[in-house]
Amino acid sequence: MLRMAQHEPMTEDPAVEAVDLVKDFGETRALDGISLAVPAGSIYGLLGPNGAGKTTALRVMLGIIDPSSGTRRVLGREQPLDAAWEVGYLPEERGLYSGMTAREAIAFMGALRGLALKEGRRRADELLAAHGLGEWARKPIRNLSKGMAQTVQLLGTIVHRPRLLVLDEPFAGLDAINQARLEELIRGRARDGVTVIFSTHVIAHAERLCERIAIIAGGKIAFEGAVDEARDRLRPIVRLRTRSAEGPWRSAIPANARRERGEWVFELPPGGPEPLLKALIDGGAGIETLAIERPGLHDAFVAIAGDAAAAAMGDLGEPG
Amino acid sequence: MSLLRSAFVIARRDFTATIFSRAFFFFLLGPLFPVLMMVIFGSIGGAAVSEIERPVVAVVASDADFQALAEARRRLDEAVDPPAMITLRHVPPEPDSAAQRARLLAAQSPPVIAVLEGGIDRPRATGALLPDGTTVRQLRFLIEDARRAQTAPPIAEANVLLTRTQRSPGLLAPARAMTARMGQMVLFLLSLLLSGMLLSQLIDEKANKIIEVLAAAVPIDAIFLGKLSAMLAMSLLGLAVWTSLGAAAIAVMTGQSLSALPSPAVGWPAFLTLAVVYFMMSYLLLGSVFLGIGGQASTAREVQTLSMPVTMAQVVVFAIAASAVGAPNSARALAAVVFPLSSPFVMIARAAELPQIWPHLLAIAWQSLWVALILHFASRVFRRIVLKSGPSRPFWRRAAKA
What we know:
Chain A is an alpha/beta fold. Helices cover 32% and strands 25% of the residues of chain A. In chain A, strand 8 (212-217) and strand 9 form a beta hairpin. The longest helix of chain A has 16 residues, at 176-191. In chain B, 67% of the residues lie in helices and 6% in strands. In chain B, helix 14 packs antiparallel against helix 15 (358-386). At the A-B interface, helix 2 of A face helix 1, helix 9 and helix 15 of B.
C-alpha cells in the first residue's frame, strides 16, 4: 500500500502521453481510443462541446479514475499519482472546505502535493497579496464571493510550483477581467517552462493561448496537432465585392460561393489568387474589394468536428 | 509522497477542523447518554449469569459419591433452578491429595471456588468460603440429599469441615466476568457513538466537490486512512477527557480509586493498556467498514438511512462477543475472536478473565491485518462505485466482446 515518490530524472518530452485510452461507464463509452502527446513546456488545449469526453480524458490521464483499457504516462511516470507532487489540477467542479481560511485552503492544497505547511502558508500569503486578495487571507472561504473562491482554488493549484498544470474549464464562471488575468497567468507559467493543459468549449481562449490542441468529439480525438495545422486544413477564404452583378466573371468563382452582406464568400480555388484575379478582371467583374483571409480556429473546428459539435460549442460558448 | 504522509495531511486537516468546531463540545457531552445506557444494560447483563459463571466446586471423590452428589444437585436444580447454584466437577482422587488440592485451587479454567474431599461421609471443603455462606450451605444441602437417597431415614446432619483459604479463582470469576462485561460495554458504546460520525465522513468532501482535488493528489487509501486516523485521534482525545472526568467522579463520590475494584486477570495496568488498544482496533475495524459504507452515500439523508442497519449490525457483533463472556476458551469464544469485527470485544473480556498476554499479541496482529484489508477493499469500492474508476464490465464480458 505504501506508494513512495520517485525521484528519477524525468523525460523531457512529452509531459503527458496517452495511448488508446478507452473508458466505459456501464454501457456508455465515454472515451473511445484517445491517443495524444502533450509536449513539455507547451500550452495545450482540449477542445470539444460539453459531454465530448474532455473531463473524463483529464481524470483518466491524472489517475483519478482508471481507464477501461489503454495506457497513460504523466511526467514519465506510469502511475500518474507518482507524479502528483509535480502536478497542479483545477477540476471543473470547484470545491473548497468552506470553514477553512483562504490561506489555509491554499496551504492545504500545497500540503496534499508534498509542500510543507509552513512554506505553503508563506506562499499563500504572497499569492493572495499578488492577486489582490491579501485582506481576505484569514477569512473563511464561505465569506468569499464565488469569483474569489475560484481564484483561491486556482492559487492552491499552483502553490507547490508544479511542472504540469491541468485546468478543466478554467474560464467557466469568470468575468472578462478575470478571464484576461487567467490567460496571463497561463502564459506566465508557460514562460517559466510549465506545461499547461486546459480544456475549454470556448474556442477563442484556445486560439489565443494554445500552441497545440486536441479536438474531442463523441469520445474520440477528431484532430490532434498544432493550431496552425488545424487552420491549414481549410483553404483561405475569399471575400469579394463587385460592381457588376452578372457577367462572364461568375464562372471564375465556385458554384457553392455564398452571399454575405453584399459580398461573395468562397474558398480560394486551388490555382491560387493570380488566376482568380485574372479571370475576374477579364470577365468584367469590376472588383470593388477583394480580401483573402486565413480561416480561424472556429472554421477549422467546424470542418473537423462537424456542424453538430460546432453548434454545441456555439450554444455554450462565451464571447472571447 | 508516501501513503502515510498523505494520510497524515488528510488527518491533520480533519482533526483540526473537528476539534476547533462547536460540534466538538457536543461530542464531548455525547457519553452522558451511553453512561445511562451502560447503567441500565449493566444491571440487565449482571442478572443473566451463565452456567459457566456459577461457582465451581471440584469434588475429589469416588464415582459413586460424585454420582450421588450430582443426582442431588440435579434434583435441586429441577426444583428451583437458582442462577447462583454451584456447579460440581468430578475429579478422581490422586495419591498426593495435598498437591491435587493446591493444583485445583490454582486452576483458571474452570476457576474453582472450593475443593470438596472425603465423599459424602466425611466431607471436607477447602476454599475461600464463608462458613455460613451460600456455597457451604448448598454443599450441606446436597450432601444431606445424597445421603437421604442412599440410606433410610433418619439421616445425620451433614457437617462440612471447612478449611478457609485467602482467595480462590472461583471467587474472582464473577467479579472478572463483570469487569469483562463492563469492558465490552464501554467498547461497544464508544463505537456506537462514533459510527454515525464515520458514516458521514465523506459527505463534506462529496458535497463540496473536494473529493476530486483529493483524489487527484493522493491515493484513496490515504484519504480513508487519514479520515479514520483523524477520527481515532479525536475519539482518543475524548476518551482521555471522559476517563479523567470519570475517574475523578468515582474518587469524589466513593472515595476509592480504581485499584479498589476487583482486579482483572491480567492486572489493571495491562488491562487498561489492552482496553485502549482494543478500543483502537475495534474503532479501526468498524470504522473502516463504516467509512466504506458511508462513502457510498451522497447526502445526509442517505447517511440516516444507512445508520439503522449499521447500528443493528453493531448490536449483533456485540451480542456475539457478549455470549463469550465467562467461557473464554469455548469454541464460541474462539470463533468470535477469529471473526475480526467481534474480536476486540471478546479479547477485552478475555483480558479480564485469563492472565495470558500472548493471545492478545496474536489477536492484535490479526485485527491489524483485517484493518488494512478492509480499508483497502473499501477504497477500491469507493474508486469503483463513486469515482466510476476501473473497468466497468466484468472481465469475462470484456473477453467475450474482444
